[in-house]
Amino acid sequence: KEDLLDLFAIAEQQNWTWYETYVLARETAISHVISVKRMKQKLAQKRVDEKFTQDEQIIIRAAKSKVPMLFLAELKKKRQATITQSERQ
């Protein structure tokens, strides 16, 4: 019953219909099990992403998809530079 109340709260806070709430639940479900906690985490993540421009979000996704040293090496290579010792640290 608590989960149902949490679903109501999410729908109300976001000003969503039940279908929009269902779509979020389906996106965050694992093995067809809905988790309100995962839904809230995804919503919090979206709020953070909205603070950045489209270009900044692309850079953030690229940085998160790679090991930091590899990402830095790619950036430096484009500018024909090398990684300094202080950057390695």
Furnish the topology, listing elements before pairings.
Elements: H1 2-14, H2 18-28, H3 36-49, H4 54-64, H5 68-78, H6 85-88
Q: How far do the termini sit from each other?
A: 50 Å
Radius of gyration: 19 Å
Oligomeric status: single chain
**Tally of DSSP helical segments:** 6
The biggest beta sheet, please?
none
Secondary structure class reads: mainly alpha
The percentage of residues in β strands lies in under 5%
Task: List the helices and strands in order.
Answer: HHHHHH
Mean pLDDT: 87
Low-confidence stretches: none
Overall geometric form: elongated
Structural description of this entry:
Helix 2 packs across helix 3. This protein has helices at 2-14, 18-28, 36-49, 54-64, 68-78, 85-88. Helices cover 72% and strands 0% of the residues. The chain is mainly alpha-helical and 89 residues long. 2% of the residues are buried. The chain is built from 6 helices and no strands. The model has no long low-confidence stretch (mean pLDDT 87).
What descriptors fit this protein?
mainly alpha, 89 residues
Short description:
The protein has 89 residues and is mainly alpha-helical.
